[in-house]
Design goal:
The chain is mainly alpha-helical and 408 residues long. The protein folds into 2 domains: 66-216, no CATH class; 240-400, no CATH class. It contains 20 helices and 4 strands. The protein has helices at 2-21, 33-49, 66-76, 78-85, 88-91, 96-100, 124-130, 132-135, 146-151, 160-167, 175-178, 213-216, 223-226, 230-233, 243-249, 251-258, 282-286, 322-330, 336-371, 374-400, and strands spanning 110-112, 116-118, 306-307, 314-315. The strands form 2 sheets. A two-stranded antiparallel ribbon has the order 1-2. It has a two-stranded antiparallel ribbon with strand order 3-4. Helix 2 (33-49) crosses helix 18, helix 3 (66-76) crosses helix 4 and helix 15 (243-249) packs across helix 16 (251-258). The termini are far apart. The structure holds heme C (8 copies). Residues 56-58, 60-61, 88-89, 92, 94, 98-99, 122, 126-127, 129-131, 212, 216, 221-223 line the site of one heme C. Residues 142-143, 145-146, 149, 177-178, 198-200, 214-215, 226, 231-232, 234-236, 282-283, 286-287, 300-301, 307 line the site of one heme C.
Length: 408
């Protein structure tokens, strides 16, 4: 405790000294040492305020009926059984029935093996019975809202022309990543049209949105598998969604492949150190409890200050200081002043790019799209999608790839 007070006093003195010595500079210029030091101090202070990483132990109820399931399923579906045996759940006595068990009255429950009422689809609400911390706020994350965001998009949104052609089919072409509304047929089982589905924002039979298995897999439900970039690039990759490629080509992606032989994603807290995990992954920057007091977040927006995927690159209106949170991640591995310089450059190039390139183009397309109908409109939409994809990639490259790179 006493040493903490000493550190606080010392840093206050330092901040005071620097602010006196640097006060001659223009405080509005984000490149001044003063601004850099101030931001670095804010990030340090933010980290210092964070609670110590909590032990991720929620309550568990031990299995009852699951013994019967296991006896039969170890023969009928050995693959599922083996995956489950390897899980933390199995070692804690959490069995099949804890997740699949259902009441007869529920609309997706059916009689199984002659005596058990079960359901096939296990919703986040079910996981949330035990994982109370994780489920809090989960329904409002971009992932859980991935389908409803499309359904509710307003006609004046610059992204609307992209989704318009798919509205009528209920976004059938988008279901793989954005999700389906899972329907239940007369036999109380999910319909073939709507499940199996792995989409981020699928609506489950109980009405709850989202899908925990999309990152954790099943039935191992491991933390390590969700920490790999591979857990994300199933969706975050492709022409319209360039994050995977951008990461793979970045120095971070290179470092990730380089560290293969010493990587350890199984550690209770996946923070970086000089012996094992020296490369950041998607999850480390966006979701992880990243050491230094940063705790696990299942909301990928928690550390985001912009909406870079939106053509207008809107500033996010969120509580707190998302960029300070992100910087706290970077500062595990980089000098604070370097990170600050990098992000400051990104912020100012973003503004220039939006003003000089994106805004005029958006206005141009808006005019064109207003006039044209039918085939001509379709042709313009192809160009429009191209432009949106390219400009998104440019913005993302500024923050997590090669700044200044255009994807072609
Ligand atoms: C006597 C053997 C037996 C027992 C006991 C048993 N199962 Fe099954 N289960 C099967 C077989 C066989 C299938 C595959 C059925 C099929 O393909 O029609 C299956 C399928 C399933 C499915 C997929 C159903 C679907 O149609 O979507 C789930 C989920 C499941 N079992 C869970 C459980 C749970 C949970 C228990 C324990 C409460 C359990 N099983 C007990 C044999 C059994
Ligand atoms: C921690 C929760 C959990 C536990 C424990 C669990 N499951 Fe599952 N199970 C799931 C989830 C999630 C799915 C994927 C369904 C979905 O899309 O929601 C699933 C899917 C299934 C399916 C259908 C998918 C397929 O590939 O056939 C079967 C069968 C099944 N589980 C059987 C079992 C059996 C048998 C056990 C026990 C050995 C078990 N489950 C334990 C959560 C669980
Ligand atoms: C009956 C209670 C219960 C249910 C239902 C349940 N879990 Fe768990 N789960 C636990 C407990 C207890 C632990 C161990 C403590 C911890 O890590 O939180 C755990 C651990 C985990 C872990 C960490 C494993 C690791 O490698 O450290 C993941 C991921 C997870 N559960 C995901 C899920 C998902 C996804 C579902 C729903 C499909 C689910 N759980 C359903 C109780 C449950
Ligand atoms: C390969 C997986 C995948 C498919 C298929 C897919 N999307 Fe996406 N979509 C994503 C990902 C990942 C994001 C978020 C990252 C990004 O925008 O770069 C996203 C974001 C979006 C957004 C921005 C959402 C917002 O509110 O910020 C729109 C609009 C969108 N998708 C429309 C569609 C439409 C329409 C389809 C079907 C024609 C579709 N997507 C198919 C993965 C996919
Ligand atoms: C099953 C597909 C899928 C997987 C797997 C997936 N995502 Fe996403 N992600 C999406 C979609 C779709 C969106 C856009 C949702 C929207 O804005 O409507 C999205 C949005 C995001 C966003 C923007 C958040 C926001 O609030 O706008 C981030 C950051 C993100 N994902 C990170 C990740 C990371 C990190 C992983 C892996 C650990 C991951 N995603 C795995 C589909 C996926
Ligand atoms: C976008 C991908 C993604 C989705 C979706 C996701 N998780 Fe996770 N989850 C992760 C990652 C990555 C970690 C490891 C975080 C870390 O290392 O700090 C994790 C860690 C966990 C842990 C252990 C750490 C903790 O917070 O206690 C549990 C339990 C867990 N997830 C449960 C769930 C449940 C339940 C759901 C659905 C409501 C879910 N996850 C959905 C990516 C995801
Ligand atoms: C070194 C840390 C780092 C890594 C690794 C990383 N990102 Fe990012 N990501 C960022 C930063 C910083 C931003 C921009 C944050 C801001 O200004 O809002 C960003 C932005 C995004 C966005 C746009 C969100 C929005 O709407 O603004 C998505 C989607 C995304 N990342 C997904 C991913 C995926 C998927 C991976 C892995 C393939 C990944 N990221 C790897 C740091 C990282
Ligand atoms: C887990 C450690 C780790 C984290 C966290 C991390 N990086 Fe890195 N970063 C590296 C490694 C390793 C390299 C490869 C080059 C090197 O060895 O410095 C690198 C390279 C870079 C480079 C290229 C440097 C150059 O001279 O061209 C930049 C810029 C960068 N990172 C910015 C960031 C930003 C911004 C964040 C946070 C959003 C971040 N990094 C988070 C480990 C990390």
């Amino acid at each position: 405790m006493r040493s903490k007070i000493k550190i606080v006093l010392l840093s206050l003195t330092l901040i005071f000294m620097f602010s006196v010595s640097a006060s001659a500079q223009d405080p509005k210029d984000p490149q001044t040492p003063k601004a850099v030091l101030k931001a670095a101090a804010a990030a340090k202070a933010y980290v210092a305020k964070q609670p110590k990483p909590r032990e991720p132990r929620d309550r568990a109820k031990v299995a009852d009926k699951s013994d019967y399931c296991i006896d039969c399923h170890r023969e009928k579906t050995p693959g599922i059984f083996e995956e489950w045996v390897l899980s933390e759940h199995a070692s804690l006595g959490i069995g099949c029935n804890d997740c699949h068990g259902a009441y007869q009255s529920e609309k997706d429950s059916f009689l199984h093996a002659g005596r058990f009422y079960i359901r096939t689809v296990v919703s986040p609400a079910r996981c949330g019975r035990c994982h109370k911390q994780t489920i809090r706020g989960f329904a409002n994350t971009a992932h859980a809202r991935a389908l409803t965001n499309l359904e509710e998009m307003k006609a004046d949104d610059p992204r609307y022309p992209l989704i318009e052609p798919y509205k009528e089919s209920g976004f059938a072409e988008c279901r793989a990543c954005h999700g389906t509304r899972i329907a239940v047929s007369k036999d109380h089982r999910p319909t073939a049209q709507t499940w199996p589905n792995h989409g981020a924002g699928r609506i489950n039979p109980d009405g709850s949105p989202g899908n925990c298995a999309m990152c954790h897999g099943r039935h191992r439900f491991s933390v390590a598998s969700a920490r790999q970039p591979e857990a994300c690039i199933g969706c975050h990759d492709g022409r319209m969604y360039p994050e995977g490629e951008i990461y793979a080509r970045s120095l971070h992606g290179l470092a990730y492949r380089d560290e293969e032989s010493r990587r350890n994603l199984k550690r209770p807290y996946f923070y970086c150190d000089s012996t094992e995990n020296t490369a950041p992954t998607c999850a480390l920057c966006h979701l992880n409890g990243a050491g230094q007091g940063l705790i696990t977040r299942h909301d990928p927006a928690w550390r985001l200050s912009h909406n870079l995927t939106h053509p207008e690159a809107l500033i996010r209106e969120v509580k707190g200081e998302p960029q300070t949170r992100m910087r706290a991640v970077c500062e595990q591995c980089h000098a604070a002043s370097v990170v600050e310089r990098f992000l400051t450059a990104a912020d100012s190039e973003l503004q220039r790019y939006q003003d000089e390139v994106v805004k005029p183009k958006l206005a141009q397309f808006e005019k064109l799209l207003k006039k044209k109908k039918g085939k001509k409109r379709k042709a313009i939409l192809v160009d429009y999608a191209d432009f949106l994809a390219q400009s998104k990639a440019y913005r993302l490259n500024l923050y997590m790839g090669h700044p200044g790179r255009t994807e072609r």
